[in-house]
Amino acid sequence: MFFATPAYAAEAAEHGAEHSQALFSIFGLQVSSVVTTMWGLMVLIILFSYLATKRMNKVPESRLQNFLEFVLESILELLTPIMGDEKLAKRYFPLLASFFILILASNYAGLLPGAGHLPGLQAPTSTLSVTAGFAVVVFFATHYYGLKTKGIKYFKHFVQPFPFLLPLNIIEEFVRPLSLSLRLYGNVFGEEMVVASLFALIPLFLPIPMMLLGILFGLVQAFVFTMLATLYISMATAEQH
Fold first, then answer.
1. Core-most of 75, 88, 91, 130, by most CB within 10 Å?
2. Could you say which DSSP state residue 56 is in?
3. Does the residue 1 lie in any domain?
4. What total of structural domains would you count in the chain?
5. Which domain holds residue 118?
6. HSE of 201 in the Cβ direction (CA atoms, 13 Å)?
7. What is the pTM for the complete model shown?
8. In a domain, 144, yes or no
């Protein structure tokens, strides 16, 4: 995580104001570049999933099915050690895998030519509202699964190991989604700003190394968010903390 200087903060505010402007409205609801990009990503993910599973076989015959199975199995292998059991990992797999795939696609959308500058095209995770939305889902899912698994006993962890830690434990629960959203937003937005600055200085060749690093950073940020969400759910549903 980086520390924002006044100049960076001003640039960030200007960037946010520029791209939060509505492209059009639907029934009075404003639609921005972030929304249109997110819609496009969801359509592509749904279309790819449909094509890959249209003719499923136990032994994959199509490259799309083979690739999709490889991706999903890789994600499951990452979740299993944190959950401690493959059965538990599979139980929460749909939500956690959706986080990883959608965040990864959103991060990589910022690497497309003109992203952040062309109307209708902006990396969704470069805005705090989107990353905060992901974090809020994690927040409610964690407590929902905790209550579903343990019932009223779930609230015991708020007074452990000592009852006087109740206020700190409550604050910790609210700090988690805040840190999740700010970490993802800060890194994606910061990478976009660096690439934009390099393009402004030298349009050719110089920004390419940063864009290649952006591929790695986008993967890492999707991985970190998903792993933290997995850890929070695992802690909420574990029999012992």
1. 130
2. -
3. no
4. 1
5. 6-237
6. 10
7. 0.81
8. yes
